[in-house]
Each structure stands twice: as C-alpha cells, then as structure tokens.
C-alpha cells in the first residue's frame, strides 16, 4: 500500500517508526520518549476555553 495518499499523521508515524528502528532504539525507550513528546504536543493544542478567551480579548 502506498503512503502517497495517506493522511499527514500516518506519513509522520511511518517516518518516526523508520527513524527509531533504523537507529536501533529499544522499544521501551521509544515508548517512554514518545510519551513525553505526546504530553508536550497535547499541551500545545488550544482548548475550547483558550479559544473562547482569545476571541473575547479580540472582541474587546
């Protein structure tokens, strides 16, 4: 199956897997590191409350 038409998140996941495997990263080390990365990036996603606060500031 070609990744040509796959969504960006699937392409990125495949690239990350290839990177980790080609560098012989142990599975538990990868999981631990990716857990930190996931927590960090989830923190960068604006919540509904944040977007409502931002619109209130713009409206004022």
From TrEMBL:
NCBIfam families: PRK11038.1. This is Uncharacterized protein DUF2496.
